[in-house]
Design goal:
The protein is mostly helical and 370 residues long. The chain folds into two domains: 167 residues, Globin-like; 177 residues, Hypothetical protein af1432 (Orthogonal Bundle). It contains 18 helices and no strands. α1 packs antiparallel against α8, α14 crosses α15 and α15 runs antiparallel to α16. The two termini are 27 Å apart. This is Two-component system response regulator.
Length: 370
């Protein structure tokens, strides 16, 4: 199973555990529901007919179904989900896969959440009508059963809705990532760099952030933001940026304005991922000993994301072929990083980077320029 799917299921399991604890769903809940399962299963088809009749009476929801066969498929899927999982409080590993599939499918179909959540409300009302009719003379059991149905329905609604929002967030994150790369490539292509350098460097940044114990979300934001580190090169004239020989002092000063240009291009926006991108662009040429540019920051005055990006950018540039140089060996590049530890680079980050070299090499192989 792909790593991302495993992570998604692990996140869902954590959410599910919290739901089950919060709503006190345990074996007694399952026992209560399983005891009336034959009755509930007997009524599931007529209940779903009522639900879908309501759905199809609305012009906005009619469009979700291409034809009668798609409606029948949806009913059968819902029937299985309710009988096998929800109404048995069967929230094991199979349920996680099923709930994820439902949430992703509804997002892909563009189901309006008003109707999505409204359907759960309608289902709960219909189940309540059924159990009230059959157990009205047993008040204690009726109360227990109504509570159980309400709680398991709430869990299922919460889980599938969370996946719906996850899918929406994933799509926006992918869009942001692609837009970042599109903008970053504009700077890289003018500097004889390759798009693969951006991918490798950003993934190394994420791996290094994870190694030092940063949270997954922060590491992911750094991966998204770090490709914009050299976006400021868009503002450097070609005669300086593409000059094959050594730069003159005035040209060096001009070249060293690209971090500030990058920070100007990237908006000062409250979203954390944009803030990280701006700080990376502005500080990835600062040095641990204070001799870097543009501000001469030293040690931990340099933001963490800038210190991480500095190591990953330099290492990948050294081991990559360019029109003006041959690639260094990993051993030679590693030696350089170690040699510059405490001068150019944060010593603690250098130590962490050396510890993830196998992962770095795997990234280089997977995203090579060839």
């Amino acid at each position: 199973m792909p790593q991302q799917k495993i992570q998604n299921l692990q996140l869902m399991q954590t959410r599910l555990d919290k739901w089950l604890e919060f709503l006190s769903i345990d074996e007694s809940t399952a026992d209560c529901l399983i005891g009336v399962a034959p009755l509930l299963e007997k009524h599931i088809d007529s209940l779903l007919d009522t639900v879908y009749e309501k759905i199809l009476s609305n012009s906005a929801t009619q469009e979700m179904f291409a034809d009668l066969s798609s409606i029948e498929r949806a009913k059968q899927a819902q029937r299985h989900h309710w009988i096998y999982f929800v109404l048995r409080a069967n929230f094991g590993p199979e349920y996680l896969v099923a709930a994820r599939r439902i949430g992703e499918t509804h997002y892909r179909l563009g189901v309006d959440l008003r109707f999505y959540l409204g359907t759960y409300t309608l289902m709960t009302d219909l189940w309540n009508e059924i159990v009230l009719k059959h157990f009205r003379n047993d008040c204690l059991f009726l109360q227990k059963l109504l509570s159980a149905i309400s709680r398991v329905t709430t869990v299922d609604m919460g889980m599938t809705t969370a996946v719906y929002y996850d899918s929406q967030s994933d799509a926006l994150r992918e869009l942001a990532h692609e837009l970042n790369f599109a903008l970053a490539r504009a700077g890289e292509f003018r500097d004889n760099e390759t798009g693969r350098h951006l991918v490798r460097m950003s993934k190394m940044c994420r791996a290094l952030a994870k190694k030092i114990g940063m949270e997954d979300q922060w590491a992911e934001m750094l991966e998204i933001a770090s490709p914009l580190h050299d976006v400021g090169k868009i503002g450097i004239p070609d005669n300086v940026l593409l000059k094959p020989g050594a730069l003159l002092p005035d040209e060096i000063r001009l070249m060293r304005t690209h971090p500030s240009i990058g920070a100007t291009i990237i908006p000062d926006y409250p979203a954390e991922v944009i803030k990280i991108a701006r700080r990376v662009a502005l500080t990835h040429h600062e040095k641990w000993d204070g001799t870097g540019y543009p501000s001469g920051l030293k040690k931990k005055e340099i933001p963490l994301e800038g210190r991480i990006a500095a190591i990953c950018d330099v290492y990948d540039a050294l081991v990559s072929a360019r029109p003006y140089k041959e690639p260094w060996t990993s051993q030679k590049a590693t030696h350089y990083i170690q040699e510059r530890s405490g001068q150019d680079f944060d010593p603690d980050l250098v130590e962490a980077f050396l510890a993830i070299l196998p992962e770095v090499h795997a990234i280089q192989i997977k995203y090579s320029d060839h």
